Amino acid sequence: DGSVTIAANEAKDNVRYLYTLDKFFGPLANASPVMMEHIPSLMSMVYMIYCTSPYYNTSEHMTSLFLKITNQMINTCKTYLCEG
């Protein structure tokens, strides 16, 4: 019972922090490759998550998050090149 409660708390905490990034992924997906105006705010939010989240600040979680961000940036560039 205790481990289920811990896992549920971790999941709720992770969702709460990840929803703060949601406002960045829409503009990042629809931006041109010159998306630099979104990057500083996004990185500040990722840093805030790393510093304040009791669960999400592991290297595994952060690596996964940066991988998703990088993949989104690559997809945005691919889309831009295919449309041009």
Description:
It comes from Cinclus mexicanus (American dipper). This is DYH5 protein. The chain has helices at 2-19, 22-30, 39-52, 59-83. It is mostly helical and 84 residues long. Helix 2 (22-30) runs parallel beside helix 4. The N and C termini lie far apart (55 Å). The mean pLDDT is 86.
Describe the SSE topology.
Layout: H1 2-19, H2 22-30, H3 39-52, H4 59-83
What structural keywords apply?
DHC, mainly alpha, Dynein_heavy_tail, single chain, dynein intermediate chain binding, 79% helix, 84 residues, dynein light intermediate chain binding, 4 helices
Estimated share of beta-strand residues: under 5%
The H-and-E topology, N to C, reads as HHHH
User: How many structural domains can be distinguished in the coordinates?
Assistant: 1
Let me know the average pLDDT.
86
Terminal CA distance reads 55 Å
What is the structural class? mainly alpha
The count of β-strands is 0
Morphology call: elongated
What proportion of the residues is helical, as a percent range? over 70%
**Unreliable residue runs:** none
Alpha carbon gyration radius: 15 Å
Main beta-sheet annotation = none
Number of helices: 4
GO molecular function: dynein intermediate chain binding; dynein light intermediate chain binding
Domain Dynein heavy chain tail: 3-82
Pfam family, one: DHC_N1
Organism: Cinclus mexicanus (American dipper)
